[in-house]
Amino acid sequence: MTAVRYGDVAMRTRWIGAALASVLLAACATTGSPTGIATNPPVPGGATSSGKASSSAGPASGARTVLSPLGLNIRQSASVSSTRLGTAAQGAVLQVTGHTDQNGGWYQVQGQTVSGWVTADPTLTAAGQFTQYSSQDRQFSALYPQSWTFAESPANVVFHSTAADQTILARNAAHVADFGASGGGGFNATGQETVIVCGVTANLNEYTHSGAPPASPAPGTPGPLALLAQIRLRLDATHALALDFNYNTAADLDVFSAFYNSMTFPFPQCQLPAPASPSPT
Predict the structure, then answer these.
(1) Which residues neighbour 109 within 8 Å (Cβ) at sequence distance 6 or greater?
(2) Is Transcription regulation given among the entry's keywords (predicted)?
(3) Mean pLDDT across the stretch 41-48?
(4) Terminus of the chain with fewer CB atoms < 10 Å: N or C?
């Protein structure tokens, strides 16, 4: 059974585990708004935000969507020690009205009822608006761009842009070895970095297509493009998940990053908070 939902509170609470129940009750509270706008009321006397916002374009404007399954604190000023005015749930859309580089970088934002500051950590929010995919059969949940769509088959689910060739291919198996060799025909390895996907540590491997440019695949088909990124996740002794991102430019990796940073799945690593940061700032 597959569902596309905004704010699937019951499922997310069950997947993340009872140890985080008290956190999730605050982080995932919504009012049923289809856009996931945060509506947590400000604390008494805390309605006014402070901090010096930049007037630059780029990060200081537009919508950003909360990626973190635990939600994201909205603070009175650009500091983790500042008063918390509310919490934006995963999928909440915040309008950016300013930006500062102080204290590691913060966005000044406007929610439905709360104005304040959120950390500019790129693993916790992403530019644009997103839709939530949740599947009990495939045992994961993730956010994908609102302008994308997806198609399922017995073997996989393909998320794809409706305006370009990029695709994210998700496959399940019993073991990582079942996915076969990494990379693909005509691709050369160009880089590797360590990523953490809902508590599971894995490598993100990047590849570049060599030789003649690959032919454009049919729309929605996860065919080869100029670049390929892969993640292989061992979820437990008998469950694994493969993510393949076909794309054309390095800037496109932001879409893939938002996808895996928003993922949850019902396995032990994902049910426990990260030791260094049990709650988003």
Answers:
(1) 64, 74, 94, 95, 96, 97, 115, 116, 117, 118
(2) no
(3) 33
(4) N
Identify whether the C-beta of residue 228 lies closer than 8 Å to the C-beta of residue 182: no
**Tokens standing for residue 151:** 């198609």
Q: Show the 3-state SS of the chain.
A: CEEECCCCHHHHHHHHCHHHHHHHHHHCCCCCCCCCCCCCCCCCCCCCCCCCCCCCCHHHCEEEEECCCCCEEEECCCCCCCCEEEEECCCCEEEEEEEECHHHCEEEEECCCCEEEEECCCCCEEECCEEEEEECCCCEEEEEECCEEEEECCCEEEEEECCCCCEEEEEEECCHHHHCCCCCCCEEEEEEEEEEECCEEEEEEEEEECCCCCCCCCCCCCCCCCEEEEEEEEEECCEEEEEEEEECCHHHHHHHHHHHHCCECCCHHHHCCCCCCCCCC
> What's the pTM value of the predicted model, to 2 decimals?
0.78
Nearest C-alpha neighbor of 74 from the set 16, 112, 36, 119: 119
- Checking if the pLDDT of 73 tops 70, the result is yes
Q: Give percent above pLDDT 70 in the chain.
A: 74
Residue 10: is its pLDDT beyond 70? no
Residue-wise pLDDT tens digits, 150-198: 999 999 999 999 888 899 999 999 999 999 999 878 899 999 999 999 9
